[in-house]
Design goal:
- By secondary structure, the chain is mostly beta strands.
- It has a single domain, classed as Copper amine oxidase, catalytic domain (Beta-galactosidase, Chain A, domain 5).
- About 5% of the residues lie in helices and about 50% in strands.
- The strands form 4 sheets. Strands 6, 7, 8, 9, 10, 11, 13, 16, 18, 19 and 25 form an 11-stranded antiparallel sheet that branches. Strands 1, 2, 3, 4, 5, 12, 17, 20, 21 and 22 form a 10-stranded antiparallel sheet that branches.
- The protein binds copper (II) ion.
- The site of copper (II) ion has 4 residues, from strand 12.
- Copper (II) ion binds next to strand 12.
Amino acid sequence: MRTVYLSALLGIALLSMANTSAAQCSAPYLVEQAFPVNGPEETRWRICWQSQGKHGLVITAAFFRKSPNAPFLRVFWDARLGEIFVPYHPGNPRFLDLSTYSQGLVTLNSAHCPAAVGGTLLGSPAVVCKEVHDRGLAWMNDSNVRRGQEVVLWGTIDAYNYNNVVWWAFRDDGAVEGRYGATAMNLPGSEKIVHMHTPIWRLDIDLDGFQGDSVHIVNHVESGASATDPSTLVTKESGLEWKADEFTTIHVHDSALTNAHGDSSMYHLMPLRWGRPRHQEAFAQSDFWVTRYRGSEIWAKDLPTYVANSENVSNADVVVWYMGSLHHLPRAEDGESVNGVFRGAAHLMWTGWVLKPHNVFDRTPLFERRR
Ligand SMILES: [Cu+2]
């Protein structure tokens, strides 16, 4: 449960609040965006964000509305980075950039976030850039075509020599894309040492409120000319493996949530990755973790402890964790030593994921007006 209920009456009130889309924040921490940006509304996001200490930019609520007449659907109760692990190839150092070195969000200015590209600075001081813009092709069918749009919130966590970009895109088709990016200076004195940047996200996905959510791990398995897609319910808190040749995805659904056809509505967590990190630390031995919601459980380095009691996560209040990774091979383009001083900047490198709606809509989104 989200809160220690003081009484049954208060409990009912809190339960009601958890399922409502009423804004739990106000400007500049409330971001509401209808799509398309110009013209009759089709879809809408309602998002709350906060700057939370070492975690930097945290999404503290996100609701999606698939049509002007539909109810808002809660997608996130809370979405944040739970760690940025940076181990160097010689075996040390092994930095916990978020829990140890984070200095919180960097102050941004109009050069980071130009109005000319749809940018608006948020916060005082300004620590978040909101960008509303075209996201390229949404779909096409010969001469019929629709371009997509999105609202992006990004900020940058300062951690020693690195700037760690936290990037959340909420798309007009109901999808969310999360990214982590590393930029700025290679480690002073070790500028040419290969290392990894391994972010671990804590995604508190609460479809239609925090109760009644379940997680399946779904794989694609080939056998001769045929293939199957076994779906396994995750019943107990645990770490889970991503298999490149099995296209592993994590599906989150709510026991009561269906579309107009009666199909179970889900969100699919789909990794966008270049490889599968396996550092020796226990928390970095699984690509996904599923835990029972606990408000105090926010650090990925403690995941083995969080799952040790194997709590039930079926038809429950669940949190999904995902580990991405960047393999940083230093290059001349990162910079050079000039008279003993390193000059340059490593250009931004990305890793992330997409959270994709599945049977949330009743039919193809962003389609009717152009048919
Ligand atoms: Cu690096």
